[in-house]
Specification:
DUF664 domain-containing protein, DinB-like, single chain, 59% helix, three-stranded mixed β-sheet, mainly alpha, DinB/YfiT-like, Four Helix Bundle (Hemerythrin (Met), subunit A)
Length: 158
């Protein structure tokens, strides 16, 4: 669940928390997978940036009055195609930061009345406001998984 406060404050705090937690990892640590067929930490970071881009596009479209059904995406295919493990941790964190900053700027510039605009994303009715909170909730979900399944794994590189 997203903590209390404005969505802008939450997204800014999340950005700082994620960077603080991950910026000092080694490349070996960032490439760690807690199990076969599980994403590496690099892939999680890339996935967060990709998904936020996708959600920001939906926010943009619905805020501008788009009424067509905005398509979904297959996150597994996106991660596989992106080949995030070939990038440095620094590059992935820089990309994440730029995406988050762009999302914050987009949200900052929305008129108050468009936050309640309804649209259709992947067959589901959703508001601009809900999508902003989905961005925050999605990151919380993955940070919890990183903490519980990656950093606490007995095989996580020291």
């Amino acid at each position: 669940m997203v903590p209390e406060g404005t969505i802008m404050d939450n997204l800014e705090t999340q950005r700082e928390d994620l960077l603080k937690r991950l910026r000092n990892l080694t490349e070996e640590q960032a490439s760690f997978r807690y199990g076969p067929e599980k994403w590496s930490i690099k892939e999680v970071i890339g996935h967060l940036a990709d998904t936020e881009r996708y959600m920001a596009y939906r926010i943009f479209c619905i805020a501008r009055g788009e009424k067509t059904n905005l398509p979904g995406h297959n996150e597994e295919d996106f991660v596989k195609e992106a080949m995030f493990d070939t990038y440095s941790l620094h590059t992935l964190l820089e990309d994440y930061t730029l995406v988050r900053n762009a999302t914050l700027q987009l949200l900052k510039n929305l008129r108050n009345d468009v936050w309640t605009n309804w649209g259709n994303a992947n067959g589901f009715s959703v508001t601009v406001r809900a999508l902003a909170f989905i961005v925050a909730g999605h990151e919380l979900h993955h940070l919890k998984i990183l903490t519980e399944r990656y950093f606490q794994d007995e095989d996580f590189p020291a």
